[in-house]
Amino acid sequence: MTLMDLFTLFLVLSFSLNHNVVGGRTLSREEDLELERQLKILNKPPIKTIKTEVGDTYDCIDIWKQPALDHPLHQDHEIQMEPSSFPEGFDGETSTIDKEIKVTLTTVDCPQGTVPIRRTYKEDLVRVKSFMEAYSYSSIHPLTKDSPGKHFAVVESLDKVPTKFHGIQGYVSAYNLTVGAYQTTSSQVWLETGYGNSLNSLQAGWMVSSQFYRDNFTRLFVFWKTDDKVTGNWWFQVNDIRIGYWINTLVPRLEGGASRVAWGGLAQALPNRPSPPMGSGHFEPDDKRKVAYFRHIQTVNQQNFWVVPNVTQFETYISSPTCYYIWPFGQIWFKGYLFTFGGPGGNCGV
Length: 350
Ligand SMILES: *[C@@H]1O[C@H](CO)[C@@H](O)[C@H](O)[C@H]1NC(C)=O
Ligand SMILES: *[C@@H]1O[C@H](CO)[C@@H](O)[C@H](O)[C@H]1NC(C)=O
Ligand SMILES: *[C@@H]1O[C@H](CO)[C@@H](O)[C@H](O)[C@H]1NC(C)=O
Description:
Radius of gyration: 19 Å
Oligomer: single chain
Largest sheet: 8 strands, antiparallel
Helix content: 10-25%
Low-confidence stretches: 1-10, 12-24, 92-106
Bound molecules: 2-acetamido-2-deoxy-beta-D-glucopyranose
Number of strands: 17
Shape: globular
Order of helices and strands: EHEEEHHEEEEHEEEEEEEEE
Number of helices: 4
């Protein structure tokens, strides 16, 4: 298994996906018709279609016809190609380490004025629903973190600190891990406010999920959860590529900043079943050839500056220390604040 240094993940205050899911495993005629109806809405007429090496189909859709714009909150939305402002103090460094494994962030060559959108099939809609049911939400809120089948190894902001976060970034190592049935593993960042029905959560990173994708490929993912309440947008950037943004009205409780942020790993399995590997899949915190890490972790403060974490306001959290570890190295001058994490998984108890 090889390591690559990877991508910088940014979530910055300064919108775009829409996934409504219905239907069960055995579909009634009505459910089936409903899924057909949704597919019609989600899959816009493509200007060009591309099939990637790993078998995904991407449609190039007119940027003004992308499904995200069907959302009622986006009716009169003016698409931004660049953030109106970007936090200061960003060093712009991109990874120089060769990508030694193939991450499914393939270049999809869409014509100007179009955006690549992965085609949605009926099975996807059904799978998303069972995925959500099985895992509910992968929030870092203290009351959901201990749910059975979820295993976190994260560096997170302390709950009692009133600091507001306006962005998060970090370089993360990516590995191609192998997962079993109904398992998902991710290395990611979280940016959240609220809990339960009022949770507003933005998440991004890489993920391997047999349940969601039916394969073992490492993929870049974004996830968001909002309450049903109805400018400054939240941008998502990988290295120097601005992927897109969430308009702030979609996640209203994050306006004015997030109250919780975290970097780290999340391994998910069905309750009381063996859990998947996390990070690099190894348990050697300081073996350079085998570790998974986050480095150069930073947040955006209220003054719109990138800042290193104030160590008194952050802590490490580990759900299942027999299966996973997290090891904070602290500040390493040329790599910023760095920590390693991960583990092989297995029978972790819950
Ligand atoms: C991981 O990637 C390496 C290098 O591309 C490859 O040799 C190996 O077979 C991959 N492993 C899995 C489990 O996909
Ligand atoms: C993932 O890889 C493992 C080991 O090669 C294999 O047993 C499993 O069936 C694969 N899962 C999927 C969904 O392809
Ligand atoms: C770090 O946080 C502590 C406690 O909240 C605070 O007293 C201290 O001033 C902060 N340090 C810096 C450099 O902001």
